[in-house]
Amino acid sequence: MENCTPAYRFERVSQANISDLVYLMKSVHGQSKPKEYYERKFSTKQFGADYIGFFAYAESHEPAAYYGVYPYQLEINGDHFLGAQSGDTITHPNHQRKGLFLQLAKLTYDLAREEGIHVIFGFPNGQSAPGFFKKLNWLETGDFTSYSFEFKNSNIYNITHKYSLTKWLYKIHFNAVYPFVRSKVFQNPERRPDVATVTHNSSYVNYKRYEKSYLIKVNGIRFWIKFDDGIRIGAMEEINEHTLATLRKLARIFGVKKVSIVVGPNSVFKAFLEKNCNAKSAVIKIGYLELQIDSKRDYCFTYADLDTF
C-alpha cells in the first residue's frame, strides 16, 4: 500500500524495508536494536495481523519518519477481539515539523481498521503524549504507578552491573537460581467482568521473548518480572497475606534490594499497594483510541503489556 505527496512517499512497513527503522533509530538516538529484534517484534501474525505501520520517504529516498502498531489479542467477558499497541514513532531531525507523525498515524489507523483491529492503545512518554491526546484524540485513562519496596539484603545485581566487565558475574548467579523458580504462563491477573485486557497465553509470552523478561514462582505466587535497577514486576498472579514476605524472598533469591510493582489506575491490586507502600511514583501515561465507533469498553493494562517489557 503506497500513497504519495509532493514531498514525501509513504510505504507500509514490511520485512523488505524494516532495516530503515534501524537507520532512523541510529540517526535520532545514536544507536539501535539490531534488525532481528524488530523482525521478532513485528511477528504478530499469530494474533491476527502483522506489519501495521508506515514509513515516510523523502524525495532523496532517505527514510524520514516511521509510525506503527503491534497487534495483540484482547478479551472481555470471554470474547476475544483484535487490538494493537502503539509502537515506535520516530522522525529524522532533517524532517521534523512537517506533519509526518499525523499523516503516518492516519495511514496506520486506516490500515488497522482494514485488518480488523478494534482499538489502538499505548503508553506515551511525556514528549509524545501531546501528539496522541491532543492531535489524535486518544482517551487518557491515568498513569502506571510504581510501588517500590526496599529490603535489607545483598545487592548482587547492582554491584555487578556497576561496570560492564562484571555483568557476567550476575549471569552466573541468575543461571544458578532461575531453574528453581521458573514458572509457566498464568492468566492476566486483571481479568474480570466487563473489563477488556490483553490475553496472556503461551503465544503471547513466547512472542514477548524479544525482550528479557521472566516468569517465576515464589511461595506459590507467579510473577512476570524484568530486571531494572532491581526487579520490576509487570504482572503478578495474586496478592495475599504473605505477599510482603514473598517479595522479600524474591529479592533475596535474585540478590536485589529493590522490588517494584507497577500497576494501572484501575488495577485489582491498587488498594493493597496504596495501603502497604509509601514509596510510589508515576511511571508513564495510559491511553487508547477506539477504531470502531460503536465500541465502548473499559480497559485495564498490566505493565507487562508494554512492548518494551
Tell me the strand percentage band.
Answer: 25-35%
Strand and helix order: EEHHEEEHEHEHHEHEEEHEHEE
Helix content: 25-40%
CATH class of the largest domain: Alpha Beta
Residue runs with pLDDT of under 50 for 5 or more positions: none
Main sheet overview: 14 strands, mixed
Structural class: alpha+beta
The backbone outline, from C-alpha atoms, is globular
Instruction: Compute the average pLDDT.
Output: 94
What is the overall number of helices? 9
Q: How many domains in all?
A: 2
Reported by name, the CATH topology of the largest domain is Aminopeptidase
Secondary structure: number of strands: 14
- Rg: 20 Å
For the record, give the distance between the C-alpha atoms at the N and C termini, rounded to a whole number: 31 Å
CATH architecture assignment name of the largest domain: 3-Layer(aba) Sandwich
In short:
This protein has helices spanning 19-29, 35-41, 100-114, 129-135, 156-160, 167-181, 202-207, 243-254, 270-276; strands at 2-4, 8-12, 52-58, 63-76, 79-91, 119-122, 139-150, 195-198, 214-218, 221-227, 231-236, 258-263, 280-290, 298-299.
Explain this structure.
The chain has 309 residues and is an alpha+beta fold. It has 2 domains: 2-117, Gcn5-related N-acetyltransferase (GNAT) (Aminopeptidase, 3-Layer(aba) Sandwich), CATH 3.40.630; 144-284, 3-Layer(aba) Sandwich (Aminopeptidase), CATH 3.40.630. It has 9 helices and 14 strands. The chain has helices spanning 19-29, 35-41, 100-114, 129-135, 156-160, 167-181, 202-207, 243-254, 270-276, and strands spanning 2-4, 8-12, 52-58, 63-76, 79-91, 119-122, 139-150, 195-198, 214-218, 221-227, 231-236, 258-263, 280-290, 298-299. The two termini are 31 Å apart.
